[in-house]
TrEMBL record:
Pfam families, alphabetized: PPR_2, PPR_3
Annotated keywords: Repeat
Range of residues in the leader sequence: none
Name assigned to this protein: Pentacotripeptide-repeat region of PRORP domain-containing protein
UniProt keyword annotation of Repeat present: yes
Organism: Heterosigma akashiwo
Entry keyword annotation includes Phosphoprotein: no
InterPro entries (UniProt xref): PPR_rpt, TPR-like_helical_dom_sf
Domain of life: Eukaryota
Sequence ranges of the PPR repeats: 52-86, 125-159
Length: 211
C-alpha cells in the first residue's frame, strides 16, 4: 500500500495523484503502526486534503491499539476543533479514546458525548452504549447506567450480552435489579457468557444467596 501511494505521489498526471480515499485506504492498511498512521494524516493535510471522520477514526484506533491514549485524546480534540462531524463508528472510537485516557476517563467520555449532542444529532449504537455503561461502572454511577439502559430500549437499540453483563456488575449489590436484568436477557434471547455468570454469582454471594 505504501509503495503504491509513493507511485501515485510521483505521478505526472494530476488525475493519478492520491486522494483522501487513497490516504484513508493506506492508513487502514498500516493500522498497527500508529506513528505511520499519524505521519500519513499529517501528510495528507500537507497535500491540501482535509481529513474526514473516517481518517480520524483510523488514526485514533491505531493510537488506541498502541496504547498511545494521550495522543488518541489529542486527535479527538483536534477533530472537534476542525469541525469534523463524527459518524456512528467514529463516535465509538472517540468514546473509547476518552474512556481509556489518563485520569478519570469516564468523565471525559460523558463530557465528549454531551458536547457532541449540543451540536449535532448523535447516533448511538449498542457498542456506544456499552462504552458509556462501562464509564458508569468505572465512575460509580448506577442511576445514570439505568437511564442509559432505558434510553437504549426507547431508541430501539437492542442490548447484547456486554450490555447486560456490565449492568449486572454495576448493580452487583442490588440482587433484585440483577434478577431483573437476568430475566430481561432471557426474554430477549441474549445468552449469558462466562463473564455474565461470574458477575451474577458475585451478586448472589453479596446478597447472601451463594448457597
Amino acid at each position: 500500500a505504501l509503495a503504491l501511494l509513493e507511485e501515485m505521489k510521483a505521478a505526472a498526471d494530476p488525475a493519478r495523484r492520491p486522494t483522501l480515499y487513497s490516504y484513508n485506504s493506506v492508513i487502514a492498511a498500516v493500522g498497527n503502526n500508529h506513528l505511520l498512521a499519524l505521519r500519513l494524516l499529517e501528510e495528507l493535510r500537507g497535500r491540501g486534503l482535509r481529513p474526514d471522520a473516517y481518517s480520524y477514526s483510523l488514526a485514533i484506533a491505531a493510537c488506541l491499539r498502541a496504547r498511545a491514549t494521550t495522543r488518541a485524546q489529542a486527535l479527538v480534540a483536534e477533530m472537534r476543533e476542525a469541525g469534523v462531524a463524527p459518524d456512528a463508528g467514529c463516535v465509538i472510537v472517540c468514546l473509547n479514546a476518552c474512556l481509556q485516557g489518563p485520569g478519570e476517563g469516564w468523565r471525559a467520555a460523558f463530557a465528549y458525548l454531551e458536547e457532541l449532542q449540543e451540536n449535532q444529532d448523535v447516533e448511538l449504537t449498542v457498542v456506544s452504549y456499552n462504552i458509556l455503561l462501562s464509564a458508569c461502572n468505572k465512575g460509580g454511577m448506577p442511576e445514570r447506567a439505568l437511564e442509559l439502559y432505558e434510553e437504549m430500549l426507547d431508541e430501539d437499540v437492542e442490548p447484547d450480552v456486554v450490555t447486560f453483563t456490565t449492568l449486572i456488575q454495576i448493580f452487583s449489590s442490588d440482587w433484585e435489579k440483577v434478577q431483573g436484568f437476568l430475566e430481561d436477557m432471557k426474554q430477549r434471547g441474549v445468552a449469558p457468557n462466562v463473564v455474565t455468570y461470574g458477575a451474577a454469582l458475585a451478586a448472589a454471594r453479596h446478597a447472601g444467596r451463594g448457597r
